[in-house]
Fold each of these.
Amino acid sequence: MQPFTVTRAHLKTALDEQNWDLLDKLLEIDKTHLNDNALYTDTWGEWWGLLVEAVRTDSVTGVTILLHHGAERDVGTWGDCIPQTPLELAQDKPAIESLLRSAAKPDYLRRTDPPLPTGCTPQEQAINRQGEIRDQTGLVFQTNEPE
């Protein structure tokens, strides 16, 4: 049996779907892409990673899980816009700001044992292809995701 490989798309999908127990389980298996700050982008050339997305979407649980697994608190946005740190983005989100300012690693207790993802949607393939291009060339650009 092949060992399970955690991909960027697995992590991004778990965060986007707010599947917290799965996100925790995936990061427990492999944290390689935890601080990848090229998972999300806008049409203006700004890029960010999981922690910034959890802050941006006001997800206290998402931030808790990411910090629990060692997300770097200073990995912010980058690209064609003015960079922002997760803490700067959390200025109007007291619970998240408190988590980011705390030196302590927050605890997260998984409530379920979700199954690991199988298969790969066209959107997930595009996310993984984008990451592979970054790994191979150092270049980052958004691949065309099917609608």
Amino acid sequence: MAMPHYEHIVIARQDVSAQQAEEISASLAQIIADNGGQVVKTEYWGLRNLAYRIKKNRKGHYILLNIDAPWAAVAEMERQERINEDIIRFLTIRAEELNQGPSIMMQVKAAREERARREGGRPEGGRDRDRRDRDDDGADMGVEA
């Protein structure tokens, strides 16, 4: 019988480094392995803004784990996450099958990087365009984007 599949998202505190966030994901993968499962894929999505403050944090390091493990392994991992003060939120969803390719978040990130490369390294969001198209008093100079 095949083991159930889970998608698990972890949000770590904003003041941990990216290296520490990777270590958190490695320790979670070890917990799963010790309990008879395996982490099929791990993605680090980076430091992202939160929709609202969580435990006084405005940002968090997002990590996705695709897990193939019995529920007992996932339950133990979640128990360890509740104890860990560097983890501010987590969510586990049972999936019918695991996506082998990059997640939507990684696809969007790759598309943004490609667009920035094509447009000559302009920062995300086009913020410099807004400043360039206005004179000192903020009036529009009639330059179309």
Amino acid sequence: MEYDINKIRNLCDRYFDGDITEDEERTLRAWFLHTEDIPADLKAVKTIFCGFEKAAEMTYRPSAPRKKTHKTIGRIFWGTVAAAAAASVCIGIFNREIYGYDADGKAITDPQVAMESTAYLAYLDNLKTSIDIAMMLTMEMETATDK
């Protein structure tokens, strides 16, 4: 099956854009299935088309339905109980109000601890301001003595 490679590339672009007729798609599929020398940029497309063909050849054979036994019903019951317990625990753990985070990145859920942390941050901010003022005064004094 001899086709111009540029025509095949154009059909591939149109195929992936969803703008191709059924006849053009059949032509494209046939070309990929029957052509051995595929350019490197089209090998992935050949894999897709060959995969479609392999999937079309596969058949589904359902297994025989299993009977629900007393064990299966018990497992379902206890599985449901376990899921409900896990959901309750998660709601209890994650339903806390978070007031902030400490230096290690852990959530602060106690409002008193959050207020203390805020006070410490205010002290640190005041300390930084004081250090900045001292640095400015030191620089002013050094420039005044240099004159």
Amino acid sequence: MIYSLRGVLIFSEDNYIVVECSGVGYKCLTSSETQRKVQSQFGNEVKIFTYMSVRENAVDLFGFSDIEELNSFKMLISVSGVGPKAGLAILSEFSTSQIAIFISSNDSSSITKVPGIGKKTAQRLILELRDKFKTLKSDNKNNDVGAASAAKNVLEASKALGVLGYSQNITLPVLSELDASLPVEQLIRAALHTISKL
């Protein structure tokens, strides 16, 4: 099992990168988030955390820029009906903190925005991962008890911003970068400040 790679980033496409280690190029399927993080390192040494998927007719290596995204990926594919490519598609659409918010707040409709993820799969993700995502360090600030409350604050702020005409596609990425333990009013003000700069 290959746990990580340290080598030179020699190639990058929409959904994969190639890291050369001791003359061998390893193709790693990646999320758009990892692509964004390593793009500036082209031609330089990078460290990629990996997950190897071995099937009857294929061996695929999935690469992630940090251990948090790798752990999220492992959680996602632990759900029945969610394979590695579906897990990667979810992580390409949403950040780890956004996924944690959706799961802890039973927001299956947002998860179904990922191509190939239907309502039943989204509900299964929520059912099976609710407790697991509470322990994931999605914002490195909230404890298990506060995670649900923080998710509720973010959703309330998102709904309020929706009344002002902002879609969740704009508000949730902004809100997920803020301290979710803040009161709803402060989250709204901070989000509006950030959105005004976009």
